[in-house]
Structure formats: C-alpha cells, structure tokens
Amino acid sequence: MTMAGLNSNHQKRLTHTVLLSASARITASAISLCLATGTLWAQSPPIRIGVLGDMSGYSMEIGGPGSTLAVRMAIEDHNNKAAGRAIEVLDADMQNKPDLAAQIARRWYDVDKVDVITDLPNTPVALAVAKLGAETKHITLVTEAATTDLTGAQCAPTTVHFADDTNAVASGTAKALSEQGMKSWYFLTADFGFGLSMEASARKVIEASGAKVIGSVRHPLAAADFSSFLLQAQASKADVIALANLGSDTTTAIKQAAEFGISGGPQQVAGLLMLISDIKALGLNVAKGLWVTESFYWSSNEKTRAFAQRFAARNSGKMPTKAHAANYAAVTHYLNAVDAAGTTETKAVMAQMRNLQIDYFGRPAKLRADGRVIYDLDLYRVKAPEQSKGPYDFYDHIRTIKAEEAFLPLGAGGCTLGQ
C-alpha cells in the first residue's frame, strides 16, 4: 500500500474515533439529563388532598359529593398548582364509621401519599382521623364535625378546626331563644359525640340566661321514627324542644313534629345545628320562623354570591352549605400556606397557616394556636313562603355574632397549645 493510502486509512480511523467519542458524549449527556429529570420528578410528586366524607348517609346533603366539588373548585382557582407542584384529589365514603375512616386515612397516608385530609362530618370520625394525623404528622382540616373537643381536650398541633363548633352554634340559636323568653327546655339528642357536645354547650348558654333544662332523651343516628321521642318532649310541656342532632335526623324530627301538631303550638321546636340544605328539605311552610346560626350564607355579599352561583351551576342548582364553603376556604388557605412555605412539610405549612390571614369569603378569619379558626357568625330567622323572593332566598338577618362571643377562649376547653 502506498503512503497516500496509509494516510487515507489513518484519516478515516481518526474521523471514526472522533465520531464515536462525540456520540458517547451525547449519549452520556442524554443519560445524565434523564437521570436529573427523573430525580426532579421523584422530588416533586403531586400534592394529594383527601376528601373523607359522608357520601351516602344521613349528612350527605350537608357535605357529601358537594365537599369534593368545593375542594376541586379551590384547586382550580389556585391554578391547579402549589409550590410548583400539581394537585390531585382523592375522595372516599367513610360511612360514618370511625374505624373505617381511620383505615382509609392510614392507607391514604402510607400507600397513596396523601398530604392532607379534609371534610370529616362525624365527631368520632373527626377525632379518630385527627389523632392519626397527629401521630403521622399530617395536617387534618375539619370542616364539618362540630365538637369543641377538637380544640379542647383532644387538640393537636396538626388539627385545623374550620367548622363552627357546638359552642358557636349554641351562642346563636340557643341564646336567641332564651332571650325571647323561652325558659324551659327539653332535648332530643343524637346519641353520639356531636349530639352530646351540642347539648352540653347549649345547656351552658341556657342556664347562663336564667332558663333551665327540664329533661332530655337520646335517639340513635339515622332514626326513621321520632314519634316516641317527640311525645315525651311534648308531655314535658317545655317551652322549647331542642334538637341536638343534624342532617336527616333534624329534618325528620321537625317534619314529624309538624305532623303531630307540635310545631306552631305553645311549644317551639328548634334545630340547634341547621343548614340551608335542611331548610330546602323542609320547605318554607314547615321551616318558617326557625332560628339558624350560620358561618356562611350564599347571599351575604358579592364573594359569597359569586362562589355560590359557580358552585350551584355544577351541583344541579343546589346552593352550597356552610360545610361546602368551609372546605373551599380551608383548602384555599392550605394551598396559600404551601406556597408561602415552599413545601408541604407539616410544621412549615402549619406555621404559615397560623401566620397568614384567612379570607372567608370577604370575612376575615384567623387560625389560633389550639387549631380553632375564629370568625364572626350570623343569626338568621327563616322566612315565610310569601316573604321569599326566589329559590334559596330563605333567611332574614337578625344579628352578627362576634368571634369572641361565639368561640371558647384559648385554653378554656383544656388545650395547652399556645398557653
């Protein structure tokens, strides 16, 4: 072979080597980029929010699927991201069983990597999930259950109680009736945590006003027949037959009281915890004159109306309850706190949740050290049919109940957080 041929072959080998080297560098760079991207993906999974509610039972109209919708709306209004991460929603029906709720919550935490759980309409359920949240360092947003134990004897640094509690509701409805001269009371009380707490809170308000409780009877959850309980209450001749229950139990008892001719007579039937869904179920002919204490009413201001109209358009025309509104506001505040903290780490997010002001549809609110979210409430009277100007125009505003009047003072329930 000539020298020229040797040089030519050598040139080809050099060129081939350079190309291989370049190819190797490109491949190595691509692998490095993929690994780096994979690492970023691993560090930035979606934020997961679990809605644990009553999707088929006696309180499904209060929260139920509407709570999931409210949470989705809060996420959408937050541009579907917080701290640069996408947001996903899981929901489940806990069937008002504390053991089932705890099982679902633990699976969500361990398997599905849920960051925060919201809703929780039943007192034993809320207490069980809040306890698990404290043990596993997960934030619990309680937007339905009303027991003061959540911010009292069983408070936890990871619990946020957004629902107005039994003390707040009693400070409205029970106080208003006592001020109307109703001096003797008889309770129909749901035989579980909420009902007992509601009765205890109302008793304090009633006795402080100079009135007295002359009797009470317990009834099971989701009762179909209240006749025997109502007859006992009627026989007591109490001025007020107070219902320390909620959802379908409240509406069934009020309907049956009307059928027996108790309502409209010398005795007044009062649902201590009533929502707009209850008034809708009763109809104004039956519900007229009832007192209602609410933290949210769809027609209060421009912000409530705007939210309610968007919600109703996606909820078969049904206006949101205060539970739906609380879910929206609580999740919005949580996501704002995640943005401010730049992480979903519980301690950092809780610090921001306490630091940031809460916008409760134009009404300011604040998270206390014991987990209680405090805000003003309103006392309403249900309109007669001829006073209503359209669908869901149910309430006449009586007065605003200031937060310091509605909620127990910090530490009054036995919680030492913030003391």
Task: Tell me about this structure.
This protein is of the alpha/beta class and 419 residues long. The chain is 45% helix and 19% strand. The protein contains 14 helices and 16 strands. It has a six-stranded mixed sheet with strand order 2-3-1-4-5-6, with helices on both faces. The longest helix is centred in the first third of the chain and has 41 residues, at 3-43. The chain starts with a helix and ends in a 13-residue tail after the last helix.
Task: Give a brief outline of the structure.
The protein is of the alpha/beta class and 419 residues long.
> Beta-strand percentage?
15-25%
The average pLDDT is 91
Oligomer: single chain
- Principal-axis shape: globular
Largest sheet: 6 strands, mixed
Taking pLDDT < 50 over at least 5 consecutive residues as the criterion, the unreliable ranges are 1-42
Structural class: alpha/beta
User: What topology, given as strand order, has the largest sheet?
Assistant: 2-3-1-4-5-6
- What fraction, in percent, of the residue positions are helical? 40-55%
Order of helices and strands: HEHEEHEHEEHEHEHEHEHHEHHHEEEEEH
**Compute the gyration radius: what is it?**
28 Å
Distance between the termini: 96 Å
Total helical elements: 14
Number-wise, the strands total: 16
Helix and strand topology:
Elements: H1 3-43, E1 47-53, H2 64-77, E2 81-82, E3 85-93, H3 98-110, E4 116-119, H4 123-136, E5 139-142, E6 159-161, H5 166-179, E7 184-190, H6 193-208, E8 212-219, H7 227-235, E9 240-244, H8 248-259, E10 268-271, H9 276-282, H10 284-287, E11 291-294, H11 302-313, H12 322-341, H13 346-355, E12 358-360, E13 363-367, E14 373-374, E15 377-382, E16 395-401, H14 403-406
Parallel strand pairs: 1-3, 1-4, 4-5, 5-6, 7-8, 7-9, 9-10
Antiparallel strand pairs: 2-3, 11-15, 12-13, 13-14, 15-16
Helix pairs in contact: 2-12, 3-4, 5-6, 8-9, 12-13
